[in-house]
Amino acid sequence: MSSNPFKDAERFLQLKKICAPMTWGANIGRINEMILTPLITLFFVFLGDSSIWSVVPAAFSTFRAWRDWIEYQDLRFVIQRMFLHTMRVGGPFIVTNDPTYMPYVFADAVYRVPVGIAKPPLGGRLDG
């Protein structure tokens, strides 16, 4: 389980705005930054028509975009494990009206109730 669930939930929400935007324009910009820019840059490098001043910023932008994407995907699984833990311990224990902030609800359950302390749900049992 996560050592700092609230920090993970906060970072997940930050990266979700970047990596899973709600608008088409932002999605196309993300695809451009991750896939098209490196392909175009490599094409110009092989043609010999690019300089270091065009390759370095494109490479840095692509690296940053992929790094954020990989971190976002990793945090999605962390949030999913927090959700499963919340269900396992009989939570959630706090409520939000905005589904955007559900990772904080899951982080609260992880922080508040370790698996060994949780009471088993009715008709079930907890392993852990």
**Number of distinct helices:** 4
Mean pLDDT value: 88
Q: State the assembly state of the protein chains.
A: single chain
The major beta sheet can be summarized as: none
What portion of residues belong to β-strands?
A: under 5%
In terms of per-residue confidence, which ranges show pLDDT below 50 for 5 or more consecutive residues? none
Structural class: mainly alpha
Please provide a written account of the structure:
The chain is an all-alpha fold and 128 residues long. The chain has one domain. It has helices at 5-19, 24-47, 52-88, 102-112. It is elongated. It starts with a helix and ends in a 16-residue tail after the last helix.
Q: What are the defining features of this structure?
A:
mainly alpha; 128 residues; 4 helices
What is the secondary structure topology, with strand pairs?
Layout: H1 5-19, H2 24-47, H3 52-88, H4 102-112
Helix pairs in contact: 1-3, 1-4, 2-3, 3-4
Q: Can I get a quick summary?
A:
With 128 residues, the protein is mainly α. The protein has helices spanning 5-19, 24-47, 52-88, 102-112. The longest helix is centred in the middle third of the chain and has 37 residues, at 52-88.
